[in-house]
Amino acid sequence: TSVSFDLSVFEIFAPLSVGGTVVLAPDNVLDVIEHPERYRDVTLVNTVPSAARELLAADAVPPLARTINLAGEPLSPELVRALYAHPVVDVVNNLYGPSEDTTYSTHAVTDPAHDRTPIGVPVDGTSAYVLDASLRPVPLGVVGELYLSGAGITRGYHARPGLTAERYLPDPFGGGRMYRTGDLVRWRTDGMLDYLGRADDQVKIRGHRIELGEIDTVLRAHPDVADAVVVAHQHPSGTAQLVAHVVPAADEVDHTTLTEHLRAVLPAHFVPAAYVTLPELPLLPNGKIDRASLPAPAQESRRTGRPPRTDTERFVADVWREVLGVTDIGADDDFFDLGGHSLLATRVISRLSAHTNVDLPLRLVFDHPTVAELAAQLPDRSPAAAPTTIPRVSRVLGRVSDA
What we know:
The protein has 11 helices and 15 strands. It is of the alpha+beta class. Helix 3 packs parallel to helix 9, helix 8 crosses helix 9 and helix 8 crosses helix 11. It starts with 6 loop residues before the first helix and ends in a 26-residue tail after the last helix.
C-alpha cells in the first residue's frame, strides 16, 4: 500500500520495532512480479487479497514468505487455501480495520478448513460491539452493525462536523467514543467475528473504498439516463468489478458516453468496468431496488474499430478476451477502457511472456494499451529462441494507481 495510506504505519514500524528490514516496492505487486529477485529474502507480505491472488497467479510469492497478512477486502476461503498450499507459508492472517480506527481493529489466524474466513477478535486496546438499530448488543449468531472503541479511534472527519457526529458516538459501554463502521457482522460460537457485508452502499475493490451512491447520482444526472444503480459483481477472473445497471431515458444509451461523463467528475476507480441496459430496475415489495436480482454483465462485444488483422494482434485480442470477459475486441480498443486494471494486466503479460518465450515487462500494457500497439511491441514468436528481456520503460504514474 502507499506510504501515504494509514496501513503503512503498521507496515513500516512493526518490522523495524523488532529489528526487521522493510523492502519498499516501487509499484506494489507489479514490481514484485517483474523483479522477484529483489524480494527473495522477504518473510512477511502485507497486502490486499486481490494483490495476493495475482502474486499466486504469477508464481511470484516470495520463496521465503512464511507469513501473509491480508486486509482491505473480504478474504475468500479459496484464496486462504491457495496461500497455505505455498510450500513455505506458515500463517495467513486476516486483518480488519477502517482508517477511522487506525490501523487494524481485529485479527484472525485463518484456517484453510473454514468455509467462511472470520475477521477475528479485537486487537489489544480495541473493543468491538455488535449492536442493533437501538444500540443494544445482539445475541450470539445474530447479525448486527459493528462499532469500535479504544485507543485507535481517530478524532473525526476534517471540517465535517455533521458527518463526524453521525459516525462517532458516545460509548455507552466503556466510556469515551465509539465509531460506527457500517459493517454487518455476527459473533461466532468460537468468539470470532464474521464479516457479512455493508449496511450501506459502500464497497471495497482492490483496497479502494467506493461509495456506490456517488456513482448512481452522477449517472442519473446524465440526460440519456432515466435511472441507474451500480453494484459490485464478481468477475470471472475472481476479482470484483463495478457494474452499472442503466435504464435509458429514450431507446438506448451509449456506454462510452457514460464512461466519459463519469470520468469527468469521479476518480478512475469509481468508473464501472461494465454496463447492463435494463428496461426498468427490479424492485422489492417495499419499493427498494432488488439488488440480488440485478443481472451480471454478459460477455459482450465492445469493439469500436477495425478487427485484429495480424496473427499477433489476434493472439493479443484472444488473451484480452480471456482476461476481460469481452467477446469481440478491436485492434484499436484500449485495455483499460474495456475494464482492465493493473492486476489484470499481470495476467495478460504472463500469458504473452509464455507465448513469446520472452520476459516481457508489465509496463508494456500501460505504455501501449491498445491491441495494435501492444502487438507491435512483441517480438516474433520463436519457441526455440533464447529468452531475452525488453528494456524496462519509464515509470507510468496514471493508470497504475488502482494497484
